[in-house]
Each structure stands twice: as C-alpha cells, then as structure tokens.
Amino acid sequence: MKIKNNLTRMDLAKSLSQKKGFSILFSKKIIDNLIQILISNIKQETFLLKNIGTFKVLKKKQREGRNPKTGEIHTIYPRKSISFVASKSLTKTLNN
Q: For 7-61, how does the pLDDT look when each residue is reduced to its tens digit (9 = 90+)?
C-alpha cells in the first residue's frame, strides 16, 4: 500500500486487512472501535498511550478575534481543544 500524508479510516482498515488477513469489514470495525475507545479516554482530560504519547484536553476561554481581511471583530466562544505530546521513545524512534 502506498504511504499517504492523510489517512482515512478506510485506509487504515485496508492496511490492517492486508497485513493480518482480516476482511475489510472486520478491520473497519476494529478501527472504529479503537477510535471510539481513544475518544472516550481523551474526554477524561488526560490520556497516556504508553510509548506513544499523551493526549491532553485544553480548555480555551472566550476571547475577541479579528478577521484579518476585513478587520471585523467577533467573539470566539469557549471551546475544548486536544494537544498531543509524543513520548521520548517515539521521538527517539523517529529520529533514528
């Protein structure tokens, strides 16, 4: 399978199917369940995947924003965002 910069769930399912011999439907269910598990754990504020990295939920406050084209001021509402910090072992593996 050709390596792409952006992967979809189906790309992951096809790759898993090719490598492990599962059907594409079964592989897609595995990927979907894995993503749901990650999402439910990330909602707990901080989630550590051993030897991969840490996901953190950042709470951003309401602030004033400006449209750079028009200069129009508008409100950016409070929201949550996700931060990912790679583990030292993952960073070391990428740099070797």
A: 899 999 999 999 999 999 999 999 999 999 999 999 888 888 898 999 999 999 9
Q: Collect all residues with Cβ–Cβ distance below 8 Å to 27 and sequence separation of at least 6.
A: 12, 13, 14, 16, 17, 20
Closest residue by Cα to residue 45 from 60, 33, 35, 55: 55
Q: CB atoms < 10 A from the CB of 90, how many?
A: 14
Domain boundaries, the chain: 1-42, 46-96
Residue 19: count of CB within 10 angstroms of its CB:
10
- Domain made up of 46-96: CATH architecture: Irregular (4.10)
Cα–Cα nearest to 88, from 52, 47, 56, 61: 52
pLDDT at 1: 53
Distance of alpha carbon 47 from alpha carbon 87, whole angstroms:
12
3 has a pLDDT exceeding 80? no
